[in-house]
Amino acid sequence: MFLVIASEAKQSRAARNTLWIAASPAAPRNDELRMSLSLFLLPFFAAAAAASAEPEPSPQPLTVGETVTLEVLGVERSVNIILPLDYAKDPEKRWPVVYQLDGAVTQDLMMGVGLLRWNALWGRSADAILVGIETKNRQRELLPATQDPAERQRYPTAGESAAFRAWIANTAKPMIEARYRHDGTAFLVGESAAGHFVVETWLQDPDLFTGYVAISPSLQWDFEALSRRPLGDQQRPPLYLSLADEGGATESGMERLLAALPQNQPYCFSDRRKDLRHATALHGLLPEALHYLLPTKADWLADYGIVLRCDRQGGDGG
Q1: What's this model's pTM, rounded to 2 decimal places?
Q2: Residue 191's closest CA among 111, 264, 304, 84?
Q3: How many angstroms separate the CA atoms of 210 and 221, rounded?
Q4: How far apart are CA 157 and CA 153, in angstroms?
């Protein structure tokens, strides 16, 4: 067997540089040649077969948290619990608890836990147990009754926030405290109608939580009635408040509430009327609210542009 390259000058252009296997009396037959090539390529085929025979990695469930189904106001709902990543590593450690309203998987739960974890990663705020409380009918569960005819017509089921708050106080919160290692501190977070619920709870039952976050609360509800309630001189737990581009009665209700806060009241008001829309307020300000209520000793945050912006503040923050 030998290889011959034909390149004679008299050959046509189509025949030039043609590679063929020339036969001679000593050359092998076609079947012998195929056998030789097969033996030569066998190790490569074997290696390819071995590689393809390796089992593919099997996907495993990614467990984010736990869920419990409870009933209130005649409706079942999920209470979702997401523990800190290090919760199991130190069985003696106890943690703060952040209660997030509108906390279903299909609501704000994943955003809330993502921002909480991001804050903890940077040392912006302490890590915590996150409890997401699902709402089913937000106006019914989060708002008190209204005397505004237009609101009553638009939201005829609204007005049972007191019953929903009692359920949180007597059922949901005791269940969490009995099952999980908490450190005795608890923070309530809400936005829009849930923000109104936060302010109402802070006014009526301030000792229920250690701190409160009301992002763009719906203070226009019921002719701004919540902002008209007398506060007295009682110092309540720290309160984080914010406004976005809501304007109108929401804005005037907030201004009235801020003006009525006692001088010794700890609070942080973030004025984002020129920066944020109502639809983006929670996304933009929850990291800042957690920074205010769950501070750490990190001294590098400002180097990375991570700052707490309190355009107005009072009490311990004043």
Answers
A1: 0.83
A2: 111
A3: 25
A4: 9
